[in-house]
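Good morning,

Attaching, inline, the backbone tokens for the sequence recovery test we're adding to the shared suite. The designed sequence is right after.
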């Protein structure tokens, strides 16, 4: 009986901590968000629409925030793409490129629609995407880098406990 109570207590503690970690600390009243059009300050203007679409898709897939129109939103997200780098990172013995890595840097401002004070003090985020030079194109790397960027942003946002 004693072991049963001990096991029950341990399982209860584990289950409670899992629920807490999945729900996050970010206030639910700000979870209806509007995503402003992406500002692109890089020399790769051709990727603006793709990064914007991948950004929104990754936010929807995560599911912790609800993307709504500007009038229904309680929080505004303003993404600005600051840098885009594509580097060959793996090679064959003969020097042919086999893998590219794309790194993007963005400023993502987040604030209530009725205020200009950002929720996050550090609003610079990075995303990295790797793709095969022989079987994929640059778009696959851009998509992965944007998904990584969104993941880093949302994880940081949900670390907020008090506003």
């Amino acid at each position: 009986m004693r072991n049963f109570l001990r096991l029950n207590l341990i399982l209860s503690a584990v289950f409670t901590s899992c629920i807490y970690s999945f729900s996050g600390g970010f206030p639910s009243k700000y979870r209806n968000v509007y995503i402003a059009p992406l500002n692109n300050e890089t020399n790769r203007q051709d990727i603006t629409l793709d990064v914007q679409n991948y950004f929104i898709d990754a936010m929807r897939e995560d599911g912790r925030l609800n993307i709504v129109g500007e009038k229904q939103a309680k929080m505004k997200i303003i993404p600005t793409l600051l840098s885009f780098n594509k580097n060959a990172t793996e090679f064959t013995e003969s020097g042919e490129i086999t893998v590219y890595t794309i790194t993007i840097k963005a400023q993502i401002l987040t604030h209530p629609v009725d205020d200009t004070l950002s929720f996050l003090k550090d609003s610079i985020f990075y995303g990295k995407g790797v793709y095969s030079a022989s079987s994929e194109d640059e778009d696959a790397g851009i998509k992965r880098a944007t998904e990584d960027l969104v993941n880093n942003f949302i994880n940081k946002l949900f670390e907020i406990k008090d506003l």
